[in-house]
Amino acid sequence: MSFTQLTILLPCHSLEDFPLYHTGEDAAALLAAWTALWHPTLLAAANRLPTWGRCDDPPEDVAGRLFILPTTTGCELAKGYGQRVKEGGGVLLRKLTTRDELVNAALAAWREQQESKPELQAVLRVDDFYALGLCYLWTELLTRRMRYMSIVDEARFSELALEAAHASATNDAAQTAEQLQAAFNLLLQARHHFYPVDTFLLDMTLVVPNVAGAALRAELATGRPTTLVLSGKTLDEIAKHEPETLAAIRAALEAGTISVVGGDWGEAELPLLECETILAQLKAGGKSWEQHLGRLPEFYGRRRFGLTPMLPGILRGLGYRAAWHVTLDDGRFPEPTKSKTEWEGLGSHAIPAIAKVPFDANDPAAMLSLPEKLGETMDHDHVALLCFAHWPGQVSPFYESLRRATAIAPVVGKFATWREFFDESASSGEFSCFTADQYRSPYLWQDVVRKREKPTWSRKFEQGIIQLNIRNKIFAALTQLIAGRLDPGLLKKYRRLQPQHSADVRIDRHLSTHGHIPGDEVGEDWTPRELQELIRGSSHSLAELLGANVVDYFSVFEGLEIETDDEAFNQASLAAWRKLHSESGQHPGLLLLNPHGHRHRVGIEIPTYWECPPEVGGPVIAVEDRGFPARAVVEIPSCGFAWIGPGSVSSAALSKRAKTPPPIASERQLFNEFMQVTISEQTGAVVGVRDLKSRGNRLSQQLAFRLPPLPEANSWDDEPRYTTMVADKIEITYATHVLGEFTSKGRLVDDDGQVYAKFIQKTRLWTGSRVLELEISLEVIEQPKADPWNSYYACRWAWPDETMDIYRSVHETSQLTNAKKLEAPHFIEIGDEKIRTTLLTGGHAFHLRAGHRMLDTLLAVRGDTIIGSQLGIGIDVPCAAMAARQITDFGSAVDSVECVLAQPGNASGWLIYVDVRTVIATAIEAVIRGERVVGARLRLLETVGLAGPVNVAAFREFTSARRVRFSGEPEEELEIKQGRAIVHLAGYDWAEIEAMWEEKE
């Protein structure tokens, strides 16, 4: 006797309510039960295709039938039915979870029922029969999902499937293959009835170094279409440790069986970085691809979160063909309505993108719900598309069945590489433009969960390092530009300053490797001190070319005996400086260098060895006539210099000759021509910042620790609790007409008097400055809780008008925001059409809105101990991005060079000039051909969304200019007018231009 019928019992009443909702083990058990009955031996034995029945109303006729009851929720039989089946001559299999267990049990039961007890022999293409069974189920379910009636020729399909099963049992390979192909083709015809065009399936294989061995090579050897997702760093590791895998990737690329998605060298935290650092990441990744694969990347994608609206323009400029608008770890990103779209970023640049979140190919639930997902994409997408992601060799057996099915016939779709997909599918014409608020990174959460040391301090530190890195590159470029202008032979001397030969490349690479710059403790390739030494070398070289005799600061102290008494040492060093200048017969001086593309007003300390302070006039805006050390305010032109030296009148004589203006600091107030600042007597914080036009309070500030909610609090809208800022001491630490400074020392306490932290806050204001500087030091006593968004130390800001708009920095551009949790490492602006108050966040990236008129800048979360922060409050600053570059952990935003120099004809001058204040030069490079500098290359970023023409000038007139892509390909010729290059920028546009001057013959 043999089985006469094969039946699976399901918890549904018809295929319309087939249980697609199961997940995990339930989904695997259901698919295992369905496909087990399609084993060719069982099909040949029953000589009919499997059927299904309701588990709550199973068939009465049980004789000779094989039943499988999946171990899924809801599959419950009536009591005693199993005994009935056994007594009636049937077989019921249950409590078996895998397909192999079910098949082995079914074959064993079939063998037991045979009189001769035949040996079970291997049959052909068993996995293809499993795939056929799944395809049949998917086709039937998809037909109903698409609101059609089934048109599968059941009789013909049954005939073909059974002929294939009998051929398999007799080891007739040709007949098995022919009949299986015909059966699959019959299902394909049924699908064509309601969706006659191709459905694309993209297989995304995720590659990291520890899975790039045998499993990956095995996948590549199959020749199946797949797409590898890997970074440049992973590619370097494969080349180093898995050369066989690298050879297999190259061969598959040449054969066209794979595409590769990537682009980054590492997977750094792009949303928090400057445009220049992002570009450096991508160029470093491109170099790895070119080195190991012999080609540049075509398709951009990454596994770790890193999407940002700045990417489309950068990718377009680098020549990418398409992008993957998906990441696979935590974080939030928007999903467009179409799976294939034109991703439009800042500056109106767009790039084709796949925006379909992939299914886990190792998850049986993805295979169970496949008809539902296919129906959705067929209904809504211009091009039907499903994506699957997995690690090499880690897929469910049912995904393997999908692969086998599509290799025979594209019943539910066809697997394609990215290149094939974009070659064969048309654009939907739909553009998807997302705001920065629609993206939210998981970085802060991940920092705390992974117990990163000093998380907020490290991020602030890395922002300072990045700014130093950018400054180093600009000084090196300016040096080369002038060297080539003065004497082409000098260029050889300064070629060493080219960025690719300095530590800034190692910084970019380190940032790529680690995703961030942890701080001094890394130091394997660089330290902040080493970078500052590079900048000192670049700025000294630039000073020499401008005619200065640069003084080696440390050489002045050679031979001096270091006294423990500070006053004695000061007197000895003062004498040494005076001796140096008397021997040279020239005037001492300071050469101030500004690396930024706009003029910059800066406060400096006058060298102690100057007998007379500099005189006001030219670049010198204001000078103190008393104090030690004395200070001055100097205005330096864009990408230029300002030279100042001692005046002819001593401080004492000057103070007698002229009426001294009142000091900036007095009582509890700081005052200059732009603002009036009031310091709280109770807290030591800024209780009010008023402008001198409206006299209204613009902003208040204080420090606080956000306390956990009270145990009895149970409402989601309970107001958060904070500590109180208590000042123990407030003193004026500097008070002249040039600089005023208050220093407040105190504690953060709760209502019970418990101390959570100690603080020192210095509030500083320079004459002529629109920025109030805050220098904050926190000594954390009580560590915050694990939730960084609900337990933290913060600088709290409050403003009076809740109707004010809020803007935040996104890669140094200003973007309107309505988000509660903000990421803004550079600045936040509060204002309307008339006024704008700028919070310069000094590298602190994370902020939390508290109501409509309050904001918390997170200074410390769990893991932070001693925190030093430089923040600023700007009043109607012309360009927030430029003002943000003044707030840094590493001193002034300009460089001061000690020199011996007779005063030049011009006390100040500019080298590169951009005439629109809201456009910043993010990079300046020398264009060098052979041994000659023939022009300058600049990257210009429009920061506030205003389109228009921008004039770019240099110390030498330009004769031609063009806009180029970031890849170096020319894009358009630019107009030259009176030696200036004119480039038209769209709002938030980031453009690279090459401006040339005539070469010398």
Can you walk me through this structure?
This protein is an alpha+beta fold and 1001 residues long. It has 7 domains: 1-120, no CATH class; 124-195, no CATH class; 200-441, 7-stranded beta/alpha barrel (Alpha-Beta Barrel), CATH 3.20.110; 455-545, no CATH class; 566-657; 665-877, Beta-galactosidase, Chain A, domain 5, CATH 2.70.98; 915-996, Immunoglobulin-like (Sandwich). 30% of the residues lie in helices and 28% in strands. The chain is elongated and about 120 Å long. The termini are far apart. The model is unreliable at 498-504 and 512-526 (pLDDT under 50).
Instruction: Characterize the largest beta sheet: strand count, sense, and whether it forms a barrel.
Output: 11 strands, mixed
- The coarse overall form would be elongated
**Tally of helical segments:** 24
| Strand portion | 25-35%
CATH homologous superfamily placement of the largest domain: Glycoside hydrolase 38, N terminal domain
As an assembly, this protein is single chain
Rg value: 36 Å
Proportion of residues in helical segments = 25-40%
CATH A-level architecture of the largest domain: Alpha-Beta Barrel
Low-confidence stretches: 498-504, 512-526
Total domains = 7
Spatial separation of the terminal alpha carbons = 102 Å
Judged by helices, strands and strand pairing, the structural class is alpha+beta
CATH topology of the largest domain: 7-stranded beta/alpha barrel
